[in-house]
Design goal:
Distance between the termini: 35 Å
Largest sheet: 4 strands, mixed
Shape: globular
Helix content: 40-55%
Structural class: alpha+beta
Number of helices: 10
Mean pLDDT: 91
CATH class of the largest domain: Mainly Alpha
Low-confidence stretches: none
Radius of gyration: 19 Å
CATH topology of the largest domain: Four Helix Bundle (Hemerythrin (Met), subunit A)
Strand content: 5-15%
Number of strands: 4
CATH architecture of the largest domain: Up-down Bundle
Strand order of the largest sheet: 3-2-1-4
Length: 252
């Protein structure tokens, strides 16, 4: 597969799905485009083009059948496809609640069956994973800040690179508050700021730099840096206070 720069992300995903269908035939269940491209926020050179491939069974032999198409896909600058069996997919809603909820709210099924039929996501699973992920990412952010505080270029890269991960978690926080559905990054940040009680300006500055391909080189005590770290801390504290029963996550 040669990459066509004028080809829309969905069209590229459909071409890849056709390669997967040729490799797997009836063993292929679904190919799903998810992430920023499915939310309409894909930016060439910045965003990843993420696809999920569901097979009836995933084995070494099955993976070998899709290797050529997967290598060509990655050679175009895309991340490797997420390869799962149907049984693995259906059994993942408890441990991958965040990922499945995010994908369910923003995905395009480019081949095969709709993958979310019969998938139930529990609020408690979502809250527990969100708390765990937030606290882990907060610790990593602090570690990198400690090591990069004297290097403005490294510090700017840290903020820009970490934003996409925190954005997924911010959307999850809104879901926990009953605000389901896919949103653009600015809307997520503004709604989060209202719900949690934080200043959205540092997060928005990092988002706009990332979206525009700009380089940030802030000093360690710059408002964008201090405010970014403070926003993450406030979100962690907010999630830590949340208490939910075992209800299922409402469908978007």
């Amino acid at each position: 597969m040669k990459r066509n720069e004028n080809e829309r992300p969905e069209e590229r995903a459909r071409r890849f799905a056709a390669e997967m269908a040729a490799a797997y035939g009836e063993e292929l269940v679904s190919v799903v485009l998810y992430g920023s491209a499915a939310r309409g926020e894909y930016r060439p050179g910045v965003s990843d083009l993420n696809v999920l491939v569901l097979l009836r069974e995933v084995s070494p032999a099955a993976l070998r059948r899709g290797s050529k198409a997967a290598r060509a896909w990655v050679a175009q600058g895309n991340p490797p496809p997420l390869m799962m069996s149907v049984d693995e997919w259906r059994g993942s809603a408890d441990v991958w609640a965040i990922e499945l909820a995010d994908m369910r709210d923003a995905h395009v099924t480019v081949a095969g069956a709709e993958p979310f039929e019969g998938i139930d996501i529990r609020l408690e699973d979502l809250r527990m994973q969100c708390e765990r992920e937030l606290k882990g990412k907060q610790i990593q952010l602090r570690e990198r800040y400690l090591l990069s505080a004297g290097e403005p270029a490294e510090l700017g890269e840290l903020l820009v690179r970490s934003f996409s991960t925190f954005l997924v978690l911010f959307r999850t926080v809104l879901r926990l508050g009953g605000e389901g559905g896919a949103r653009d990054a600015e809307s997520v940040v503004r709604r989060l700021a209202e719900r949690v009680g934080l200043d959205p300006a540092p997060l928005l500055e990092v988002h706009r730099a990332r979206a525009g391909g700009q380089k940030l080189k802030p000093q360690a005590d710059a408002p964008v840096v201090v405010g970014y770290l403070d926003a993450v801390s406030r979100v962690v504290e907010y999630v830590d206070r949340l208490v939910h029963g075992g209800a299922e996550l409402p469908r978007a």
